[in-house]
Amino acid sequence: MDGIKSFFTPVGEFLTRIINSVYAFFNDDMFSIPLPGGKSLGLSLLVVMLVGMGIYFTVRSRFMGVRMLPAMVKTAAEKKPKSEKGAISGWQSLIVSTATRVGMGNLVGVVAAVSAGGAGAVFWMWITALLGSATAFVEAVLAQKYKKEDPIYGGYKGGPAYYIHELAERVNGRKLKRSFIAILFAFSGLLCWGGISQVIGNSVSDTFDIAFGVDPLISTVILVAVAAVVVLRKKATVKVLDIMVPIMAGFYFIITLVIIFKNITELPGIFGRIFAEAFGLRQAVAGGLGFVLANGIRRGLFSNEAGSGSAPCAAAAAESDSIAKIGLLQSLGVFIDTIIICSCTAFIMLLVPGGAAGASQGMALLIDAMRYHLGEFGVYFIAITLWLFSFSTFAGVLFYARSNVSYIFGDRKSWQLVYKIVALVMLFIGGLAAYTTVWTLGDVGIALMTVFNMMAILPLGGEAMRVLRDYEKERKLLKKNKK
Predict the structure, then answer these.
(1) pLDDT tens track for 336-370
(2) What pTM does this model have?
(3) Number of C-alpha atoms within 13 angstroms, CB side, residue 19?
(4) Could you tell me what percentage of the chain is helix, strand and coil, using 3-state DSSP and rounding each to the nearest 5?
(5) How far apart are CA 68 and CA 72, in angstroms?
(6) Which of 95, 127, 168, 451 gets the highest tally of CB atoms within 10 A of its CB?
(7) How many CA atoms lie within 13 A of 31 on its CB side?
(8) What is the DSSP string of 226-281?
């Protein structure tokens, strides 16, 4: 036994060093921008890539995040067409992608961003949503264009692995059974979502322990049992999310409005702080502007997921009379996540007077803030909200995983079942203990996904831009004919 342990211990340590090194390569500050006061703004390679891609597609699309917002809302409000057997509608693809975007990042992540970067971080979160909406459109359109029929679940499957495969075939000038880069993307996604499963389990058990004193084993068993009932049934995931996501997001928004109305006189001052601290000389001179920018940008990017290649897996499964409409719906998902849900958490925090939330951190800080605003009801509400957000995220990433599992292993039900069981085990383990290496592995997974996704959407992005231009021409023609 000691011999086995002596062999695996150094191997484990070696793998941990590799994982941490890759994480540091993507997430540690790689570029520095000088700021007033002799300080500098440090930006990681991942942030630079995502922001750069967002700016590139925002300019190419002529700032569609602003111009096309009414069209996005109108598309979401349209009567949902009946889908083919097994296919999901464009609205349902928005629901699935929103389920994964609206998760822990909208709660604890925003608390961390505001705590570290101040009110000004909120402004930079909003900016990332405007930039990310264009990237989300491109991803979704490409996923729709190169989707495949799904013989296991019915309807369609697709995502970055499939449009990376298409690009690889063009480059090689021949048909390919598999593309190496597409396999790397698909595998990175499965790593990422496995890591997310553990984070979800740990976050839920911690919150229920803090809020109600519930033993982590009990809360974890309940979470895993409910999750298993949903994700192991063939048609249950989308049906459950279709009902759950609008309700949970709606209630969170309504509760935030209640808190805002209770503190309506404070609102002008809060907006003043957001804009003042986003550009303020005081932060720049003190060297704090770097924290404001970095925390706001990172939180916005990692919350709305635009560019990482996750949401296109849901977009590909949708059926619609217009590829462009699926792209618009996914762009709207970025706004729902960052402009609405992340802002809700930010306002809940900013409307607490200094020191009223105590010296807590993370989820405990948000619980204290809700207790300040709404008493014990606020504690119950935020704990249940976290459970719903976390559960919907888990169900959503398992939906994403379908396409990646199929790309790597083929259309086999057995491999789909294997990955679901692995994810449920990770969910259970995470509820009982926090293994930071696995969490880091999840972050490495999303970084690698972003790199491989960028390798495809940058050369293929022109196709999405043509789809957008054609859609706008059709809309103008329809308006002209109606007159």
Answers:
(1) 888 888 888 888 888 888 655 454 566 677 788 88
(2) 0.86
(3) 21
(4) 80, 5, 15
(5) 6
(6) 95
(7) 10
(8) HHHHHHTSTTHHHHHHHHHHHHHHHHHHHHHHHHHHHTGGGHHHHHHHHHHHHH-H
